[in-house]
Structure formats: C-alpha cells, structure tokens
Amino acid sequence: MRLDKFISTTTTLSRAEAKKVIKKGILINDKLIKSPDYKVDEINDQVILDGKRLVYQKYVYIMMNKPQDTISATEDAIEKTVVDILKEEDRIHKVFPVGRLDKDTEGLMLLTNDGELAHRLISPKKDVVKKYYVEVSGELKEEHLPIIEAGVTLEDGYKCKAAKLEILESNEDESKANIYITEGKFHQVKRMMKSLGTTVTYLKRLSIGSLKLDENLKLGDYRYLTEEELNKLNK
C-alpha cells in the first residue's frame, strides 16, 4: 500500500495532509522515508508517526445501541449521525451503518467498512432475520398472527415477505410485541403495525441474524464485536 494511503487509512489525516507529513519524514523500520508513493507492507512494517506505531486493520465491526434523534448515515449537514457518536480514533476506519433505523428508533446498529458482509446482512434474498421490540397504541390480537406470517399487504399495495409476530402484552389501549422480519423497507415495522390498525409508539431493534444487542450497552454506547460474534455473523 502507498505510504500516503496507509497514513490516511490509519489516522484522521486526509491523503493530502498525509503527503505533507511524509515530506518531513516518516520512520519505517528505523529508516526515514519522505516519499508518499513508498510501498508499505501494512501488516509487517513498523510505521512510526509522532512516536506512535500506526496499526492497520482492513475491516472493523462495531456494535452500537443507537439512541433516538440520530440518523443512520455517515454524515449530514443538519442531523446528528451514528458516525458522529464515534470517537475520533474509531472514525478513522471510515465505517458506515449496515442498513438503517429510523431517527426515532433505538437499538442495535452495526457499523463496519466491510461492504461484502453488509450486503449479505441487508439483502432481502439472504433472509437474515431482524428482531424488533415494538410498543403500539391499540390492540394486537391472535388473529393478526397468521396475517403477519402470510405476508401483510401495506397501504401502497406492497406485500411483505413472511414475518413473525410474538405478542407479549395486549389490551384495547396498548400492546407490546416482538416482530421478526427479513426485509428493511422504508418504515416497514411502523407500516405493518398500521395495517393491523395500531400505531407504533416505541421501536427498538434487538438483533440482526445471530448478532444480539449487548444489554450492557447504554443508549449511545458502542463496542467492537468479539471474535465469537463475528464468526457467527459470517456463518
């Protein structure tokens, strides 16, 4: 990898800023290098900047408990994004959210720079199950279960793929449930609940495939996936 790219990948410096730093000299394996196109062995070479060794990671995987009033994007001129929550040292990996959660939806958000894994997780063809906890105003009934399982039809005529509804509590005024879907259409859970005559008042994603939200993560907190979590997710 070119030295300027290596530095921009492992620090918050842009490619142009990295070139300026390189002109002053970068210590690589105890040799002073001043050429931005110097080829670095990103795994084995020891590259030192400001007295610290730069460590290269090709892919990173971050679990976040997304808070409300935060959008699922890498950047936005007005709204706070999930990437804005990350510390500077974690943003250098240029991660992006896998799929999306509405601004007012909480819960599990996976951020990564692994495009292949992201595609596998959000592609409807892969049938990766996403579990949500939902609270609604209105009554969820046993008669709604087969409707959801058969694939409910939304207000615009779109027929959802088969899903599963698990009613936890229910009365005429409000209900609580878990819902399992394999798609990620715009406002899908809210629209599914609307088709049943109820209105979502709270929504939280609990899992994506084998990856479950860490109950110890407070809203707005995040951590890197464990090796075990990543191995299960890749399967």
TrEMBL record:
Signal peptide: none annotated. CDD domains: PseudoU_synth_RsuA, S4. One of its GO terms (biological process) is enzyme-directed rRNA pseudouridine synthesis. The keyword Ligase does not apply. InterPro entries: PsdUridine_s_RsuA/RluB/E/F_cat (IPR042092), PsdUridine_synth_cat_dom_sf (IPR020103), PsdUridine_synth_RsuA/RluA (IPR006145), PsdUridine_synth_RsuA/RluB/E/F (IPR000748), PsdUridine_synth_RsuA/RluB_CS (IPR018496), RsuA_PseudoU_synthase (IPR050343), S4_RNA-bd (IPR002942), S4_RNA-bd_sf (IPR036986). It is an enzyme of class 5 (isomerase). Its EC number is 5.4.99.-. SMART domains: S4. It comes from the Bacteria. Belongs to the pseudouridine synthase RsuA family. NCBIfam families: pseudouridine synthase. This is Pseudouridine synthase.
